[in-house]
Design goal:
Blueprint lengths: L4 E11 L4 E12 L4 E5 L6 H8 L7 E5 L6 E4 L11 H5 L1 H6 L4 H13 L15 H13 L5 E5 L7 H17 L3 E5 L3 H7 L2 E5 L4 E8 L8 H4 L5 H11 L5
Parallel strand pairs: 2-9, 3-7, 3-8, 5-6, 6-7
Antiparallel strand pairs: 1-2, 1-4, 8-9
The chain binds adenosine-5'-diphosphate (ADP) and magnesium ion.
Length: 248
């Protein structure tokens, strides 16, 4: 199979006692193995809705989501949502506990990830002793613990200050590439999207449909921070910026 995920004509209407909201009108796309896709669009256009449907937190109204049975999804939110009363290791093990798949092998995998990404010495610490960037790495390792094939990242860096945000997006990018994952990242930060993604999907304002899809081709593509300095970066930035209906 060429794609690990295919979405066809996804539509979502939220029903509340007082109103119906058409959040996503029509969204179709295919994700290739190892690919990083960014979804950008104005606030409230339905980006989080798409990810929530993919990971089963919300039900779609219509459309198809086609995925092999053995493909696993992992979801990481804007807020790292670490449990303050659990130490770092136990935070990372929680997904495995919930799935009832915690065993020595899985635990070793988590410990290895903590080692590899500079958090092993903090495994017995509590989240409030860690910096925002470290917490976000812990949140990523917790997501990786269940060995997902596709990572869904919803504004994963927006709670961080600018400097931390740059370095954590570099870290997260490297980790996901090293671990050979595919990812869909939702962000309203266009520079972040261009620096990380292979493809960018621009959504219209709500009810969202796809306005445009950009293949991001950077000469000397490397890490997100370095990618920001490539000669094509501002070309894409200007072009995509004009496409987003920020104030519409
Ligand atoms: P984005 O992530 O692009 O900012 P969302 O997907 O969160 O947008 O929201 C899209 C639209 O759907 C918004 O108008 C929002 O108010 C509405 N919406 C989101 N979640 C719910 C919900 N659980 N119930 C009702 N309406 C919702
Ligand atoms: Mg959102």
């Amino acid at each position: 199979m060429n794609n690990i995920l295919k979405i066809e004509n996804l539509k979502k209407i939220y029903h509340t006692p007082s109103q119906e909201t058409l959040a996503v009108e029509d969204f179709s796309f295919e994700l290739k193995p190892g690919e990083f896709v960014a979804i950008v669009g104005p606030s409230g256009c339905g980006k989080s809705t798409i990810l929530s449907i993919l990971c089963g937190l919300e039900k779609k109204s219509s459309g198809n989501i086609i995925m092999d049975n053995n493909i696993k999804l992992g979801y990481m939110l804007q807020n790292d949502s670490l449990f303050e009363w659990r130490n770092i290791l136990n935070n990372c093990l929680i997904g495995l506990e919930i799935n009832k798949t915690l065993n020595d092998d899985n635990k070793k995998y988590v410990l290895d990830l903590l080692k590899k990404y500079g958090l092993y010495d903090f495994k017995d610490s509590y989240p409030n002793n860690l910096s925002g960037g470290m917490r976000q790495r812990v949140a990523l390792i917790r997501t990786l613990a269940t060995k997902p094939d596709i990572l869904l990242l919803d504004e994963p860096f927006s709670a961080l200050d600018y400097q931390t945000r740059l370095s954590v997006s570099d870290d997260v990018y490297q980790i996901l590439k090293n671990e050979n994952k595919s990812a869909i990242i939702v962000t309203h930060d266009l520079a972040e999207a261009i620096s990380m993604a292979d493809r960018i999907i621009v959504l219209t304002k709500r009810p969202s449909t796809i306005k445009n899809i950009y293949e991001i081709k950077l000469t000397d593509k490397s890490t997100p921070i370095k990618n920001r300095r490539t000669k094509e970066f501002s070309y894409y930035y200007d072009k995509i910026w004009k496409d987003i209906d920020f104030y519409a």
